Amino acid sequence: MKRTFFLTACTALLFASGAFAQTAPMAGSAKVEAMIKATFSKASPEWQARIELDDTQRLCTDKRNQVSAAEAEVIQKREAASVVFPADGNLQGDWKKGYQVANVGTGGQFSDAPNGPVGGNCFACHQLDPKELSYGTIGPSLTAYGKDRKYDPQTMKDAWAKIYNSQSAFACSNMPRFGAKKFLTEAQIKDVMAYLFDKESPVNK
Amino acid sequence: MIGLSKKMRVWARFVSLAGLLSFTAGASGPLAQTPDAEKEIERYREMISDPMSNPGFLAVDRGQVVWGEKRGAKNVSLETCDMGLGAGKLEGAYARMPRYFADADQVMEIEQRLLWCMEKIQGLDTKDVIARRFSAPGRDSDMEDLVAFIANKSTGFKIEPQTSHPKEAELTAIGEAMFYRRAGVMDFACATCHGEPGKRIRLQGLPDFSKPGKQAQETMGSWPTYRVSQSALRTMQHRLWDCFRQQRWPAPDYASEGLTALVMFLNKQAAGGEITVPSIKR
């Protein structure tokens, strides 16, 4: 009896320490979430609410973006439901304004003025105008985006959906869900679309 | 303590290099991809790492003064503060932080520990010190100066992540989970920018922290640093604060346990990296 108890205790200890050493607490677990709350305790309730996880963020976090095919389908279906196409059916605005949207990197930071400029900061991650040398590489190059796709109307609709909600096309994409999260306005997305698809845009030159 | 004349000489040398800085930055900026430009930037970095031309060393000197200054209700200095290797022992202490401190029953990184020592040893009301945690023109930061002074005493030491105490191991694991947590209006995690090798934002190269190795070692081994663009010495607390800002997350609480958790994880990836601080960065 005593011996059995001793063995059980040892096994339990072994398991506990083994699990402790090898398994990181799952993101989204109570411990991690409590730590997140404590780390941002001085932020306003509105700011704290901004970093609560929605279902898609939770799954991408837990899987470190490596979701299964079935999980990807769930995410893409859910996110596609949020995509809103312009009521007037016109997907393209002004490419010159679109450049501004792509070039501006402010908005949404705690250091930004409440009514200051908000941009998509596309150049931070993508190559666009081949003449602009200061571009990032987190996302793919988008040079000649419209031209290479022969300005195809269906491709334009797909691009709208990707900008509006990147995860409607690629589950756990690194790219923000600009329209769905109301970060960019419909007019701004139209202008970015023109920057990608207008024949006069430097992107296609 | 160094005299004023030596400080002025340091400045004179820095000012002469500042002209070089604008030249190098202008010439290499758009060409940062080419190996020649990379080499040029590397050469420039080596040049400005000279302690005699890095204004970060002025913070080291100021930090030494703050360390020895009698302050607080108890009117004593910080010289008996235990940074992990015993009271007042600073050589190599920063290389082994954050770590578990039995007297506080808590894992602490350097700034947390300093605040603890100010409160417990000096009986100092840290409100003013915390208000000045990040320096600005006309506003010195005791914390930045102290970190510069103490971290400098680990130059030449290798980063030794502490994991023997269960709380250290647990906090490292929590820090790792935090690193991958995607949230906010842009869905960004630390890993969005620092989860793959060879990526950049605009022209700025991004260290990959998803794997242990050279990039993590070089990054963690070069903080605190003198930021030329901010004309200030900055610590890892400031770096993480700025990361969360760009991540579109709220401002993190200064010297909070969560930031310590992140530093634990980053140091785990940087294990064995050599510390050379304060460094100097753009």
Global structural class of chain A: mainly alpha
User: How helical, in percent, are the residues of chain B?
Assistant: 40-55%
End-to-end Cα distance of chain B, whole Å, is 28 Å
Distance between the termini of chain A: 83 Å
Give the biggest sheet of chain A: none
Largest sheet of chain B: 3 strands, mixed
Global outline of chain B: globular
Number of helices of chain A: 9
Q: What is the H level of CATH, i.e. the homologous superfamily of the largest domain in chain A?
A: Cytochrome c-like domain
Order of helices and strands of chain A: HHHHHHHHH
Mean pLDDT of chain B: 89
Helix content of chain A: 40-55%
What is the CATH topology descriptor of the largest domain in chain A? Answer: Cytochrome Bc1 Complex, Chain D, domain 2
Count the DSSP helices of chain B.
Answer: 11
Uncertain runs of chain B with pLDDT below 50, 5 residues or more?
A: 1-32
Short description:
The complex is a heterodimer of chains A (205) and B (282). Helices cover 46% and strands 0% of the residues of chain A.
Annotation keywords:
heterodimer; A: 205 residues; mainly alpha; Cytochrome Bc1 Complex, Chain D, domain 2; 2 domains; 9 helices; disordered N terminus; B: 282 residues; 3-stranded mixed sheet; two-stranded antiparallel ribbon; globular
Characterise the protein shown here.
The complex is a heterodimer of chains A (205) and B (282). With 205 residues, chain A is an all-alpha fold. Chain A is built from nine helices and no strands. Chain A folds into two domains: 5-80, no CATH class; 95-204, Cytochrome c-like domain (Cytochrome Bc1 Complex, Chain D, domain 2, Orthogonal Bundle), CATH 1.10.760.10. Helices cover 46% and strands 0% of the residues of chain A. In chain A, helix 6 crosses helix 9 and helix 8 packs across helix 9. The longest helix of chain A is centred in the N-terminal third of the chain and has 21 residues, at 2-22. Chain B has 282 residues and is mainly alpha-helical. Chain B is built from eleven helices and seven strands. Chain B has a three-stranded mixed beta sheet. In chain B, strands 1-2 form a two-stranded antiparallel sheet. In chain B, helix 1 (4-28) runs antiparallel to helix 2 and helix 3 packs across helix 6 (142-152). The chains are: A mainly alpha (205), B mainly alpha (282). Chains A and B meet through helix 2, helix 3 and helix 4 of A and helix 7, helix 8, strand 3 and helix 11 of B.
